[in-house]
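[audit] Reproducing an earlier prediction to check determinism. Same input, same settings, fresh worker. If the tokens differ from the archived copy the diff job will pick it up downstream; this log only records the rerun itself.
[audit] input (513 residues):
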Amino acid sequence: MDKDLASIQEVRDMLRKAQEVGQVLKDFDQTLIDQIVARMASKGLQASERLAKLAVDETGFGRYEDKVIKNQFATRELWEYIKSLKTCGVIRQDQEAQLYEIAVPMGTVAGIIPSTNPTSTAMYKAIIALKARNPIILSPHPGAVNCITEAARIMADAAVEAGAPQHSVQCMTIPSLDGTTELMRSELTAIILATGGTAMVRAAYSSGRPALGVGPGNVPAYIEQSADVPKAVADVVAGKSFDHGTVCASEQSLICCQVISSRVLDELRANRCYICDSREKGLLEKLMLDEKGNISSKIVGRAPEVLAEWAGFKVPRDTRVLVVMMQQVGREDPLSCEKLSPVLGFYTVGSWQEGCELSIKILNYGGVGHSMALHSQDEEIIMEFALKKPAMRVLVNTPATHGAIGYTTGLPPALTLGCGTWGGSSTSDNVGPLHLVNIKRLVRETRPLAATTEAPSEHWRYDEQYRYRPPQPQVEKSPTATPVETATPRTYGETRLNEDDVERIIREFQNQQ
């Protein structure tokens, strides 16, 4: 059988199994579900180092140490956040409003897994799906099949050990575009969780099935002159260098006020960043951009010294980030886009207002709706940025990478970050278990209608826009008023019924009650 046909058949078989699993999971109570999810998180945490090595070895992307942290985040930190979350049965009640909210599972989740964050994203999606009592089928990126399959196996085995039915977590073993398309378009798929490239996320939203997707991030970081410069620069470098820039929330451009630019550059050097000259910047552009002017996949998540060597110049082996000086945003300065690598653009501005406008331009160049970082001690400026930036996460005095996913902030821990309608997403949230449940509402009457069997003495009339309105109060005629000829009753629509006809019909109906 051809690979594409085999992939489609595998997906169809998995969907049928998941449908059966869903009928079992929907009757599980909160205690059992939490027991299952706790075991999944524990087993994933135990395997975090081994899975990190598998991911680096298979894809060549990122840093082993950082992938370990991401795996721990997607298991331990995620579980700590969601362990007390109610996802089964009545999850909220309002006695005053006589309102009960009841969570029910959506059904089979299709989880699209990228190659940049393969094992952590696979475990995160499996955990939040099962927490919401949904089976999940993972579609792995072809470049990370082995490590994603292993992560899925660990989640599946742990779930079964704790009481879940077989096939609660499944992963495609014959990944193909045709198979993934079948998974996304099937009527047996309840919802798609799409994390990956722009084309894949668009395909999810155009599949005809409900979808939650994450758009690209072109995250600016602005260091305003009131900022704690050493901490601000350290945060930007920490975010940008983390896993060699493969997280979509990582900083892509650094903007600072001209008056502090020399201090910022000194701090960048102190944090082992290499400041490229114009020649080296040109070499990087040739390396990093394909013939269409887009970022080449071959440079994603590569170490700074590797990128420099491939481009044709040398940097110290302990370099954390390559910094390129920027003037414009767009095709004129092509490295102003999302780079998915440890390469950081550097801009200077004359005022915070200019920094504000430049941040907007960068966000609108491929990252609208995602995130931005701001380093400042001025609360008025902070609020101005929050109110006006087209970013769903404005991250203050923290690394953008870590802050956006909820590692260093109070945001929900997540590896799928909604960009809202600005970024083509159906949510602006950090996606979690409650995004994977349907919520029913049980309500009782709190404002009874006034009960009466008596016909009103005055019937309401239709106005010229067919709205039912009460008659205007009659004004007593003046004795000297000139008699007015009675107007012909207004008729309505093609029926030619007039006001008197309508009143007669209403009266007859009431007499029949």
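[audit] rerun output stored. Observation attached for the diff report: The CA atoms of residues 103 and 436 lie 10 Å apart.
[audit] end
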